[in-house]
Amino acid sequence: MRRQIPLALVFIFGVFMIFQYFVPHESSEWIYEFLLDWIYIIGIFALALGIWSLIRVSVAKIKARKANWGYPIITIAGLFLMILFGFTGYRDGSLGFHFMTAEGLSNPMFRNFFDYILIPIQSTMFALLAFFIASAAYRAFRARNVLASLLLVAALVVMLRFNPYMGPIGPYVADAASWLLNVPNLAAKRAIIIGIGLGMVATALKIILGIERGYMGKG
Amino acid sequence: MKHKSLVILLFIFCAFTLSAAQEDAAPVDTVQVDSILPPAPVSMLTAKDGENDHGHSITLRWELSADDGAGQNSVLSYEIFRWVPFFMDTLQSIQDSLEQTEAYIAELRTFLPRAEKRLKEYRKRKKPKLVIVIFVDSTQFYEDTIAASKRLLPEYEEQLKQLRQWRKQAIDEIPQAHTSYPEQGEWRKVGTALSGQANFKDVGVKERKSHDYMADHTDYYYRVDAVTADPAIRASSEIVGPVQSYGQLFNTGRIPVFVAVLVFCLLTILFVTRARRGAELYVRPLAGIEAVDDAIGRATEMGKPILYVLGLGTAADIGTIASFTILGRVAKRVAEYQTKLIVPCYDPIVMTVAQETVKAAYLDAGRPDDYYEDIVYFVTQSQFAYVAAVNGTMLRELPATNMYMGVFFAESLILAETGALAGSIQIAGTDQVAQLPFFIVACDYTLIGEELYAASAYLGREPILLGSLKAQDYAKAAVIILAALGLLAASLDWTAFINLFSVTS
Amino acid sequence: MRRSTIIVMAAVFGLFILSWILRSTSLASVQEHYLIGGLKVTFSAFLTLAILSFLYKDNPFYKFAEHLFVGISAAFWMSMGFWTTIVGNLIPRLSRSLSEFFQVPYQPGSYNFVYFIPVILGIMLLMRLSSKYGWFARWPLAFIVGTFAGLNFVRYLRSDFVEQVSATFVPLLVGWQGVGHFVSNFSLSASGQFVAIVGNWVIFLGVICGIIYFFFSKEHKGAFGAASRVGIWILMITFGASFGYTVMGRISLLVGRITFLFRDWLNLIS
């Protein structure tokens, strides 16, 4: 029962989703929309599990007084502070359990934390890619063998296509880059996508048929 | 003097006569409005239920007007008219009243608690005598308003209940109302098509409470007007109808996908059955998979942990599910070697499943006591916060091996480069085509796309999983054959063959 | 903590205070709450530099920013999820009194009772925390995994198989009007017939060889092995081209942050 019912549920819902894809009738569509709505709702309950795990791990690190044990305090402090700002707000001048008023977000600190802490850090993490792409290129673009050489040449041609200092060969480089992106790039991507598609489809089928059960654990 | 005035009069008379003559003598290329002929109407107008949809739509097709985009009577557009019974206006006004009542109720519900609160504050405040009259008036105002609002609220709610009932009844009567054609209704424009366009789809919505609701199993009548530059000059087609819309039970536009589903299911079942019967299945070596054992051994020798990153997918993503299977295998070997495993998770459901998987793996390895909950932990559901945390873990814990298996996005390069900085062996596998170049460049071994899904079969060597791999290979062989046939078909213009693979909806 | 670390941290803190004062002073003429405004910009700049310091090595400032980010982002998504999904989507369909409490419009409907099912499934998922009843969590998991397996099965079979195969149906000879026409109009220009024909052949052979590379159940030797090798060459060209293609985009991300530091914080550029 502990495994049979979940496997049966996987089969039933899996087959239904395949079925509804070919049945455009309204009733099939309604059920499809219900099911998707349910998944979002269940996901929020799962978030509570995640927050619980985060708190537990942080508290364990603090209690164990391992190296860097002070930093999880910042995590927990930030977590609870943002929960406070996110679940309370001002309406008619007093603090209460709300998020939005007709005028917008009702706790200005929630907005400030988002704008001046989350956004700068997120953008900076994204900006690190500029450095990492350079260091990755430095490490990887060495013509050790045929494959590495092909990688290097293709990357160089595409990177140089908008370079204004290429002189008379500039237009040819741009054309070559354009051809590389539109022809062999397209061919290889299509091959990869076909392979991925078949792999996904096979895995999905194995899940529906109950052959693939790793996600369910044991017991 | 007399002569002068006579000359002036004569001059004025001539001027008037000449200008009148000029007005009468219209230039050759000016067309008088009342002499323009209406254009030719459209012909062969047909109306049918929209194909392969959930209903609530009618498709109209016609032969273009002979004057379409040409000549003096140029048709610049087509206007599509549907016969609408006046009953629909009644339904519309019920809808409008309902929405208005809902808005009033929402306003009252917002206003009442605020007003009561304000009244309490006023009553508590001690005001100097000079303004006592104004103070008393404000209190009275709030008291009166609150009392009136409290009286009105249940009335509005009753009204709302009644309106909802009427709306439901009215919606049920829509098909009946349309049978009164051509009485008690009028023609209303439902759309426009440009010149050169010979079809139009009148689409409604299925939500019964929407203003654009179009009922199924209802008689609809249409006509199409060919319209010139002057909207008053037009020609109407014949009226078509009654035509009804309804949802289809099978989408014929997706037959190629249906055939693919059947073929693929058959192939999989065939090879899985053969595998179950003990057929030997060869699989070629995959460098990334063979490196997993070495990588785990390396970590054990160095006494350093193994970091396993499941990616940013949800538990429903196929790449993540493939990753669970690999995690199970890796966790079992890690348990056997008693190496530390770290699995930071992005999604809480993924964390739940990963915990189950790792726990089961430790049980299988005969080391249930070595398992603890914090091997697999949730970090955050924000992409770059997760990456920041994993980066920190990499630089502090200094794992010997990093495994990135699953769904990754822009953060893939950050993870891989930081792992390289930390001096870890890195094995990656993802089905995100856009991230493959970064993993190829930054990691020691990369499982490209489909190899990620094949990895679980490789690691476990279970006949059923290998059988499924065989089915995939046969599907690929079919792709090669079809591509070759398609090349011939495209070269020789065999459109029938090409259309077999065309998914139209 | 080492002495040098403490000195560096103190110096950074001092610079932070100085920066705050200077920025607030510059904002005094344009903003009413200039102290708060100055603090916000300075703190954002501090966090930006803390993350960038990671490029040098792991340090207390990066650790501080990282842990703060993790805590705040987790709570942010929890708040958004609660107010948009639970309060915005679920409660209006379940309960009139709760809708009134949260001041969201109640949405009555004949089928609203079905929304109790995800609530029950969600509670079952929370039972994961219990060692005795944790197995109940498999039911909602099975629902989610099964639903998406079915959805992905058909969706990817269409987009990644049927449509990709159909897109590979390219003609051997593009715009062919005979050998004479081909020779007389021969050119290497990108829009020419020759390049188009070569392109189609490369696409066809590239797809075939790429697919052959991914064959698992056949040994890659002989002609098959040669085709597989061509396949991996084409794949490497693709990966190189994709890598080169994204470089400029990544650099532009850094430009954004540098602009913030030099304009909004240091006020050195307009």
By oligomeric state, this entry counts as heterotrimer
Radius of gyration of chain C: 31 Å
Low-confidence stretches of chain A: none
Which residues of chain C form runs of ≥5 with pLDDT under 50? none
Shape of chain A: extended
Helix content of chain A: over 70%
**Structural shape of chain C:** extended
Tally of contiguous helical segments of chain C: 9
Query: Using only CA atoms, what is the Rg of chain A?
Result: 27 Å
Order of strands, widest sheet of chain A: 1-2
- Distance between the ends of chain A: 10 Å
Q: What's the total helix number of chain A?
A: 7
Classify the beta-strand content of chain A into a percent band. Answer: under 5%
Through-space gap between termini of chain C: 41 Å
Mean pLDDT of chain C: 89
Largest sheet of chain A: 2 strands, antiparallel
Q: Give the amount of beta strand of chain C, in percent.
A: under 5%
User: Sheet bearing the most strands of chain C, described?
Assistant: none
Mind explaining what this structure looks like?
The complex is a heterotrimer of chains A (219), B (505) and C (270). Chain A is mostly helical. Chain A has helices spanning 4-22, 26-64, 71-87, 108-140, 146-159, 170-182, 184-209; strands at residues 89-91, 94-96, 100-101, 104-105. Among the domains of chain A are: 1-81; 88-138. Chain A has 7 helices and 4 strands. Chain B is α/β, with parallel strands linked by helices. In chain B, the strands form 3 sheets. Chain B has a 6-stranded parallel β-sheet, sandwiched between helices. Among the domains of chain C are: 3-96, no CATH class; 174-265. Helix content of chain C is 73%, strand content 0%. The two termini of chain C are 41 Å apart.
SSE order and pairing:
The complex is a heterotrimer of chains A (219), B (505) and C (270).
Chain A: H1 4-22, H2 26-64, H3 71-87, E1 89-91, E2 94-96, E3 100-101, E4 104-105, H4 108-140, H5 146-159, H6 170-182, H7 184-209
Antiparallel strand pairs in A: 1-2, 3-4
Helix pairs in contact in A: 2-3, 5-6, 6-7
Chain B: H1 2-24, E1 43-49, E2 57-63, E3 77-85, H2 87-124, H3 132-172, H4 174-178, E4 185-194, E5 199-203, E6 220-227, E7 234-236, E8 240-243, H5 255-276, H6 287-302, E9 306-311, H7 318-337, E10 341-345, H8 348-364, E11 376-378, H9 383-397, E12 401-407, H10 412-421, E13 425-430, H11 436-442, E14 445-448, H12 450-460, H13 463-492, H14 495-499
Parallel strand pairs in B: 9-10, 9-12, 10-11, 12-13, 13-14
Antiparallel strand pairs in B: 1-2, 2-5, 3-4, 3-6, 6-7, 6-8
Helix pairs in contact in B: 2-3, 5-13, 6-7, 7-8, 7-12, 9-10, 12-13
Chain C: H1 3-27, H2 34-52, H3 60-94, H4 96-102, H5 116-126, H6 138-167, H7 179-184, H8 193-213, H9 222-265
Helix pairs in contact in C: 1-2, 2-3, 2-9, 3-4, 5-6, 8-9
